[in-house]
Amino acid sequence: MNLTESGEIVQWPETHYAFVEKTGPFHKVAPEAWGLAHGLAPLVAEHNKITGSMSLYKMNPNVYRAGFALAAKPVKLPAGLAYELLEGGRYSRFVLTGPYSDLPAATGRVFEIVSKNNLMLRMDFCIEHYVTDPLTTAEEKAITEILIPTE
Q1: Whole-prediction pTM value?
Q2: Helix or strand or coil: residue 1?
Q3: pLDDT of residue 99
């Protein structure tokens, strides 16, 4: 697994976010949420500029959001998607290069590193920012930023 082992502190910007939200075990709800989100993407793109894809998640309870960063507040958002203006904030960024199937192990490793280093976490969503497009990027070259909210 090709994962950066030290978290770089970054400031995530305010982001317009349209998403599908599911609760439950991530291994079950993440594929469901992404299936719905990808199915609605063409309708979102009819009236809005999609600038990226990302998931947000919290544990206890397990809340998973699959969705799209937008250039502005959405217009005519299709039924099935919610909208939120993310405030942004300070995050520790870890970068995974490789297939999305490595994400569960990579996220587990990130939380081990965070715990070992006693990072002060902020009560907010963690972010998986999919930097590369899976439709145009070879799986082994996919880049995902794992962002952990920090104080």
Answers
A1: 0.93
A2: coil
A3: 95
DSSP E strands, 61-102: 63-70, 82-86, 89-97
| Token code pair at residue 56 | 């947000």
What range defines the domain where residue 138 resides? 2-149
pLDDT at 84 over 80: yes
Q: Is the pLDDT of residue 135 over 80?
A: no
Q: Is the pLDDT of residue 91 over 80?
A: yes
Residues 6+ apart with CB under 8 A from 115: none
Number of alpha helices (DSSP H) and beta strands (DSSP E) in the chain? 2, 9
Q: How many domains would you assign to the chain?
A: 1
Q: Which of 44, 52, 54, 51 is nearest to 74 (CA)?
A: 44
Please state the three-class secondary structure of 130-144 as a single string. Answer: ECCCCCCCCHHHCEE
Cβ neighbourhood burial of 99 (10 Å; 0-12, 13-18, 19+): middle
Looking at the DSSP assignment, which residues form a beta bridge with residue 53? 68, 130
Nearest-angstrom CA–CA distance, 83 and 58 = 17
For position 110, what pLDDT does the model report?
Answer: 95
